[in-house]
Write a structure and sequence with these properties.
single chain, alpha/beta, Immunoglobulin-like, 4 domains, 15 helices, 24 strands, 36% helix
């Protein structure tokens, strides 16, 4: 009897432990932090959060869900003392959307994956004070994970905790895709899916069905720091990012600090294309030299500013032997380019060669040779790969060659290329038939809504258009924005005068290529027969040319001033 009772008690205890363990392993935890660097105390932060009546909701979603109104709520709560912690029950990794609503504002949303028995963290990054005009953002902390259990999944992990002289407390990591047109089925995050570093660590997952070239970026918003490294991912890839000798140094000229990326597999495409030069003794030695050059440059700048009067003509021979950071970086680039260019020349494996070309192999080689390399690849790769990743690159290079040629040939004295482009109403406008045929002098202005110097010129151009349009002067604005909405918003906001058309394909659109546009704003002044009078003229030069052709606008106003009898003088 006693023995049986003991067995029952043991069984009951085991069941209790088992149920408790099951409950714990099915419980997810979501922790959120309100990141507001402008609030000096926790009390100020809490006051701001309380005034905004912030709520946090976690909803289960399917991959195709868009409307969250009917989706089940897994947990909800609100921030307190800058933090929120929510728990719920799930039996497998689950796609969710985290929604944060502050007062009457529209909800901010963040897709995430919650797993049973795991703590997932996110941050509400309050940017309003630090970056006026920039929207606040929800960002995952450390991990960007996927629910898909696929052999094609890759994982990039980074540990930059060894960088101890830079503040990475508010730093983000993200990837950008350098290969064009990834194959259907790929799942790749972008800057909108960036993750906050956690004690210098981060992890990003994705799915690819073919080798792709990516760039991994790290930016700190608490310090002047930016790091970057190229990686090649393929199905099942595991890439580890770590600091290099120069990673904690501030590279001059805004250049991102060098990080290192290594694959778990020695036979990976990453190993063949990236590690082939990155891990060479020659390159690693040059990295050490680069770090020394940067540190010396910074020390020299600090010494010069503190001891201007104590400077002497005597220089330390050791110091004289230290090269400028820019020169060392050029030597590092030369090492890399020599290795990846040899990969292209040997053409042992077409995919490895394609990745080397996408990395920039042969950038110092003549354009005609690079075109030949793309053509050779097109002859050995399958048609789908060629159409997605070879032909677009070849076309881009071909257009860049045309831009360089046209930059030197579409000049004063030559006839401007014809174009027919649509205006905001969708009506086609011909340069020769509709504009030059009706005016004596025409200014073509290449611009974009995102271009500050372009926008800065619009007030002057509006003035000139108002003063001289009825005398035979017209302006044709050619936008090279990427989207109609950007073009229209910029046009309406800045009240663009004259004729407003667009070639919405950026710098490599047909019209900017025909005119050899390398930078904007770019202006061309034409006479009625299409001959170019001037290219790249300043606003002051344009004003003088208009005065010479049509007379001073101020004098004309005096002549047109009415007398008491109502007649003009």
């Amino acid at each position: 009897m006693t023995k049986n009772l003991g067995l029952v008690l043991v069984a009951s205890i085991l069941m209790l432990i088992g149920n408790t363990y099951a409950d714990e392993t099915n419980t997810f935890t979501l922790t959120g932090e309100w990141v507001d660097r402008e609030s000096e105390t926790p009390e100020e932060k809490q006051k701001k959060m309380t005034s905004l009546q912030t709520s946090v909701v976690i909803q289960r979603v399917e991959a195709t869900d868009e409307d969250l109104s009917d989706n089940p709520v897994l947990a909800q709560g609100s921030f307190k003392d800058g933090m929120v912690s929510l728990k719920g029950e799930i039996d497998a990794p689950t796609n969710v959307v985290i929604s944060v609503t502050r007062g009457k504002e529209e909800p901010m949303t963040l897709p995430a994956v919650l797993s049973p028995g795991k703590n997932t963290s996110f941050a509400l990054w309050d940017k309003s004070n630090t970056f006026p005009g920039v929207d606040d953002q929800l960002i995952l902390v450390e991990d960007f994970t996927l629910t898909e259990d696929s052999k094609d999944k890759f994982r990039i992990t980074g540990d930059l905790s060894a960088i101890d002289d830079k503040d990475l407390s508010v730093a983000v990591a993200y990837i950008s895709v350098r290969s064009s047109n990834p194959k259907a089925g790929s799942i790749l995050s972008d800057r909108s899916n960036q993750v906050f570093l956690n004690d210098g660590r981060f992890s990003i997952e994705g799915i690819v069905t073919e080798p792709l070239l990516l760039a991994v970026w790290v930016h700190s918003y608490a310090d002047v720091y930016s790091g970057q490294v190229n990686v090649v991912v393929e199905p099942g890839a595991r890439i580890e990012i770590s600091p290099s000798a120069s990673s904690s140094s501030f590279a001059p000229g805004g250049r991102a600090s060098e990080l290192l990326a290594n694959s778990e597999r020695a036979d990976s495409f990453h190993g063949k294309v990236i590690e082939s030069w990155q891990n060479s003794d020659e390159y690693l030695k040059k990295l050490d030299e680069y770090a020394t050059a940067i540190a010396f440059k910074a020390q020299q700048a600090e010494s010069d500013s503190d001891n201007k009067e104590a400077q002497t003509e005597t220089k330390d021979p050791v110091e004289e032997s230290i090269k400028a950071p820019y020169d060392v970086h050029k030597e590092m680039s030369a090492i890399r380019n020599a290795v990846i260019t040899s990969i292209v020349q040997e053409l042992e494996d077409p995919m490895t060669t394609l990745l080397a070309m996408e990395l920039g192999a042969g950038y110092r080689v003549a354009e005609s040779r690079r075109l030949e390399s793309w053509d050779t690849l097109a002859s050995v790769l399958d048609k789908d790969l060629v159409s997605r990743r070879v032909s677009p690159q070849r076309e881009t290079l071909e257009r860049e060659i045309r831009v360089a040629t046209n930059f030197n040939t579409v000049v004063a004295g030559e006839t401007a290329p014809e174009f027919r482009l649509a205006n905001l109403e969708g009506e086609d406008v011909s340069l020769f038939d509709d504009v030059l045929a009706e005016n004596e002098v025409v200014l073509i202005d290449f611009w974009a809504s995102w271009c500050g110097p372009c926008v800065a010129k619009i007030p002057d151009l509006k003035k000139f258009h108002s003063q001289y349009n009825d005398k035979g002067f017209e302006i044709v604005f050619v936008s090279i924005d990427d989207t109609y909405d950007d073009w229209k918003t910029g046009s309406d906001g800045h009240e663009v005068p004259g004729i407003n058309v667009a070639d919405l394909n950026g710098f490599l659109g047909e019209t900017p290529v025909d005119y050899g546009i390398r930078a904007i704003p770019s202006e061309f002044l034409l006479q009625s027969d299409g001959k170019i009078l001037n290219r790249g003229l300043t606003m002051e030069e344009l004003e003088r040319l208009l005065e010479d052709r049509f007379g001073s606008a101020e004098k004309q106003e005096e002549i047109d001033e009415p007398t008491n009898d109502g007649d003009t003088l």
